[in-house]
Amino acid sequence: MGVGKRLKRILGRLIERPPRLFRLTVPGGLFRVPGEEKTVYLTFDDGPVPEATPMVLDILDRYGVKATFFMVGENVWRHPELLAEVKRRGHAVGNHTYHHLQGAKVTTLRYMQDVMRSEELRDCGLFRPPHGWLRPRQTLQLRRRFLIVMYDLVSRDYSRHLTAEEVAENVKCLARPGSIIVFHDSKKSLPRLEKALTSSLEWLISEGYGFRKLRVRNR
Question: 184 catalytic, yes or no?
Answer without folding.
Answer: yes
